[in-house]
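The data are set out underneath:

___
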Amino acid sequence: MFETLLIANRGEIACRVAATARRMGLRTVAVYSDADAHARHVAACDMAVHIGGPEPRNSYLRAEAILAAARQTGAQAIHPGYGFLSENEAFARACADAGIAFVGPPADAIAAMGSKSAAKALMEKAGVPLVPGYHGENQDPAFLRGQADAIGYPVLIKASAGGGGKGMRVVARSQDFDEALASCKREAASSFGDDRVLIERYLQKPRHIEIQVFADTHGNYLHLFERDCSVQRRHQKVIEEAPAPGMTEERRQAMGEAAVAAARAVGYVGAGTVEFIAEPDGRFYFMEMNTRLQVEHPVTEMITGQDLVEWQLRVAAGEPLPASQHQLTLTGHAIEARIYAENPEKGFLPSIGTLDTLEFGPHGEFTLADVRVDGGVRQGDTITPYYDPMIAKLIVRGRDRQEARARMLRALGDMRVAGLQTNIAFLRRLMADQAFATADLDTGLIERRHDALFPAAGALPDPVLALAATALLQAQGYAGTATAASGALPSDPWDVSDGWRVAGRHERSFEFLDQDGAPFTIRLLRDEGAWTYGRNETMQTLEWIGESTDPSRARLRLRLDGRDHTGEVLRRGEVLTIYLGGEAHVLRLHDAVAHAQDEAGDHGGSLTAPMPGKIISVAVRQGDSVKSGDALLVMEAMKMEHTIHAPKDGVVEEVFYQPGDQVVDGAQLIAIKDAP
């Protein structure tokens, strides 16, 4: 076994590998960019080496810098994690040439499976069924469009060297093909350094099922059952679970054998994932093989009781697989949810900012406990535009799928995240959705269930608003009502700061902004020792008691019109996050002066950058007429392209940036004036 391991990655996977390596007695080396100098994975390792600037191409994709760090620290092995250089054939060869073990498959296996087109050709020769499509080398745009026309729409354009939804578009009409192809190629070149694509028929209501395979240098191969990764947004996985709901033993065996055959065909070693797409009638087709450990590997660990990172390290050190196929058993059901900094209501737009609060509840990290968190960031860290916006993975296990789903709902409700937007509330709606609950799964589930998963914003419940208002009272030094705490009056009224006035009557008003930015007022009235909550014309009796003295965090028990509620309120500046009944609600205090300034500074037809990024292309010039919804420009941020559309009909008054320019969050990109 090795003594020193370098981890050539960042975030959650780097922390995960470091935890397993430490348990095995290995010393670990972290590499980090300028943006990650104080990152959690750096603190998790015994040593750390700086390798370059914040953008991946200047740091985590610099193979020579990573190899230099390994030589400098005496590392005998490099774990590439997932992403970055994990599926880079040249890097695997460079490690071998340097006499450093690459914790992954041989370079030849990466080469064979690294290109989706080449992998499909190999599988076709092996008799593995493929989705109808074009997987050849001719990349002429007109030729590719002809292939798509021949296959029939809708078609899927996929980056040949890619993964994670990068460089992937569904095209419904021939006239949309050229624009989608150009976007895919740009995104693929940016993410993988390779702009080649393949074209496939887009299947209707398919499921995405993958098989975890493992092999060693002694000729042993096996699979560790399947994972269902059908629930996706923007072709990126959101929920993973194992085993796949509704999977029969016959199909499990057939898919497992096909996956192992694929690994054997390329002389595979280490951890790999063979991905299939399955139709409702049970037919399945090979999609690709990811020659690395995957983000969703914890659900496989939970149902098998195996540490797959430890397996990787032992195999890389030349040891045989820790178990044989017949020794592996499948127990219970596991579900993984990816916690992202993003706004689901705005097309899952990534959110950038500081994690002012980050708490996961009473759960274990990197363990095989029934509720587990694998995270790569800490409270106070910043989500930057340079990397994927995943905050953590939440993994649960139950005796069956229903118990696992219930545990996931509870665990999501225990989380406390403030400072930026997250998908936690969306994940709770997804877990509770009827289609997910009944395992009516396919890769289009989120779009199919859009109305249920994205309900129209309604008025916030009175208990939520009452919690917010009483938290503000408490922060101003008010004490709660005695009856809510104990049912008894205080012996001396001067002992309690509860808003008592000589006149007997006292009122406090708080103005908030709703989700559309419109102000509304909540009134709290104290009269003859009792509080009343008022919203519009509705008045309700209110009793409350605070359980903490921190002005930025209030734990409150209140009784509103005779009904009891217990909740928590986090305050960061003017933003309040209220947790009640497992749900999180965000409110903003209304600053009338600042609001007036905002209105005075409104540019009407201006468009601003939703996050920091780089301008990729501009489709309009000064003086052009545009219609509402027209694509104006494309910017790249967080490894994804984002198209900026015209908000109204008009004429382009000015274009402030050109392709290649870097822009900051909120920068004005284009100004549009009304047509004459």
